[in-house]
Amino acid sequence: MRALRYYAPQDLRLDKDVAEPACAPHEVKVRPAYIGICGTDLHEYQHAQNLIPLPGKPHPLTGGTPPIIIGHEFSGLVVEVGSAVTKYGNGSVEGVGGGGGGGGLKVGDRVAVQPTLYCRECVPCKQGHTNCCTKNGFLGLSGRGGGLADFVCADADAVFKLPDSVPLEVGALVEPLTVAWHAISISGIKPGDNVLVLGTGPIGLAVIQCLPSFGVGKIIAAEMAGQRQTFAQRYGATHLIDPAKENVVERCLALCDGYGPEIAFDCAGVEQSLDAATRAVRAKGTVVNLAIWHGKVGFDPNSLVFHEKNYKGSLCFLPSDFGKVIEALDKGTIKPQDMITRKIALDRVVEDGFEALIHEKDKHVKIMIDMGLGEK
């Protein structure tokens, strides 16, 4: 089968003789239809490896080493259902626990795939915090296949059927939307709270789109890129701040009765955004970090201590978050289709996908690979 594989930074290859994966009893085989390029994919391509295992250092859960099939934001069609899934097709798959999908799946179903991999045996997994697994990994980053291939196998409870109202291309946006939904869910947000979102790339825009479902007050977006400011406003930002022209902290205080917003979501992951977020939120407020950082930064802990502010990390999502996002898409409370700014073919991923996001990042939000199935 065809598969786009990561060999090293700036070395992606479309291999055409990769062995098709066999479907284990507890798995579902999916033929990917649409795959989004994530900021994490871009960082792994552009810089040193961070999440993809290094040569000679296999991933502790999958045993995978480069070359690794990439692509972890994807939708597709079910082409095979494992024997244990057929027998236990109610979300309780024999020998598999902790997930939320898998129920009643059959060949031909349109699905979105939750890419997180977890051991199901460590303390966080047994407590239900599978996103915090001590060996956690991802389809499309850690081995066991990925979305940028003709076929991929996933644990049945990680495969979620899409309602007829949700097109497959939107199904490939479920994963980034769920990252946002989870971060909001753990933030302690309350109806009427004012919110600051720093950075309006795909994840920041996903946060902005999900926030109205939680009944928030003002949604303040801090972003320098003009096109992304436009997207932020389109998706629900009530106020825009250009950090190149305005002081983010002073503007937030002015917009929020002199006290600042209750919650800030740092989706930028740069030292300036961390500093602004911790100083902008009000006393007892919370900063939630969604960004994956690629180095140490300077930080003044007193910006939290003196007003009992909270700093919280948010990683990925839980299966329950995946289901809630699909439900919101079905109801139409989230309408993310305009996030897709380009569709490309598998053989043009590097030139029209990765390189475009590097050199034209202000122009694009989400570039989607269309695998040519002709399915909606």
From TrEMBL:
UniProt cross-references to Gene3D superfamilies, sorted A to Z: Medium-chain alcohol dehydrogenases, catalytic domain, NAD(P)-binding Rossmann-like Domain
Names of the cofactor(s): Zn(2+)
GO biological process, one term: butanediol biosynthetic process
Coiled coil found in the keyword field: no
Record-annotated Enoyl reductase (ER) domain positions: 7-369
GO cellular component terms, A-Z: cytoplasm
CDD domains, alphabetized: butanediol_DH_like
Keywords, alphabetical: Metal-binding, Oxidoreductase, Zinc
InterPro entries for this protein: ADH-like_C, ADH-like_N, ADH_Zn_CS, ER, GroES-like_sf, NAD(P)-bd_dom_sf
UniProt signal peptide: none
SMART domains found in the cross-reference section: PKS_ER (SM00829)
SUPFAM superfamilies in the cross-refs: GroES-like (SSF50129), NAD(P)-binding Rossmann-fold domains (SSF51735)
GO molecular function list: (R,R)-butanediol dehydrogenase activity; zinc ion binding
Pfam families: ADH_N, ADH_zinc_N
Keyword hit for Protein biosynthesis: no
Family to which the UniProt record says this protein belongs: Belongs to the zinc-containing alcohol dehydrogenase family.
Protein's name in the database: Chaperonin 10-like protein
Organism: Microdochium bolleyi
Organism lineage: Eukaryota, Fungi, Dikarya, Ascomycota, Pezizomycotina
